Amino acid sequence: MDGEDQEFWGDVCRDLIEESQRAISPLIGSQKGGEIVKMGADGTPTTLIDMVAENKVMEVLEGVDRPLTLISEEIGEVTIGEGPSDAILVVDPLDGTSNAVKNIPAYGISVAVAPISPEKKGSLTIQDIQMGVVKNYATGDIYSAVKGQGAFVNGNDLTPSLKQDLAHISLGAYVYRMDMGKIVILCKSVRRMRILGAVAIELSYVADGTYDAFVDVKNNLRLVDVAAAKLILEESGGVVTDSNGESLNGRLSVLEKTSLIATCNEVIHKKIMDILDGI
Q1: Model confidence at 117, in pLDDT bands (50, 70, 90)?
Q2: Number of domains the chain is built from
Q3: Residues 59 and 88 in one domain
Q4: Distance separating alpha carbons of residues 137 and 106, to the nearest angstrom
Q5: Tens-place pLDDT, residues 207-235
Q6: Is 212 helix (H, G, I), strand (E, B) or coil?
Q7: Which range marks the domain in which residue 49 is found?
Q8: What is the domain-level CATH number for residue 26?
Q9: Structure confidence by residue, pLDDT tens digits, 246-278
Q10: Nearest CA to 114 among 204, 223, 197?
Q11: CA atoms of 157 and 145, how far apart (whole Å)
Q12: Could you give the 3-state DSSP secondary structure of residue 119?
């Protein structure tokens, strides 16, 4: 991503975040915001606050000067503008919906940008993401990364934990319909478990040292939920693979799912993999 594109898409991300946050603010902590209004493109229920957030995303992107493709869990995949798309934007308009409607301070937005070069053929994958931004609306923290340029929180360098002993780490997990047998074994090996239900924010917590690792071992995570935060964590120096230890390489699609082992460093990653391999 050259400097001009970086500035352009950075401005788009900034506008999306500011306008979306403003739109959902009246619904934070409200039962009305949690009312189910339809089924999303990914097959899960869409709440009123989700719909308001995504409608604002669409409104902002319709004013962008370049054609683009939006991938989002509520609306699916849609092309905006005329002509071939310059980029794919993978957006989770509201990460941590349940937290937002209950005013638990872990909810926000995730935006990932994958430029489409003229020579690029076929579907883009998560490896094509060049820019990622995650904002925790509740705290105001903005996590960002551009591929090859490091990762930042509020403009400051992100540094993951240096811990190397599982007995001392905090582990986050995505446990929706998870094989609890595996998570119980991991629980016995670590100091603390954290389950917030806000995947992009929790992966960003691994990047800043709040968490030391985050896992999903059942292939339940939507790729759209991790697209931005994966880049942020990797650019900070962390490690992200699937539960087989392979790099994530799923195509950019609202229906694409993945398992995930995300850690602060290679040592912790290997120790978690060793436990999972032994189950």
Answers
A1: confident
A2: 2
A3: yes
A4: 8
A5: 999 999 999 988 889 999 999 999 999 99
A6: coil
A7: 3-157
A8: 3.30.540.10
A9: 999 999 999 999 999 999 999 999 999 999 987
A10: 223
A11: 10
A12: coil
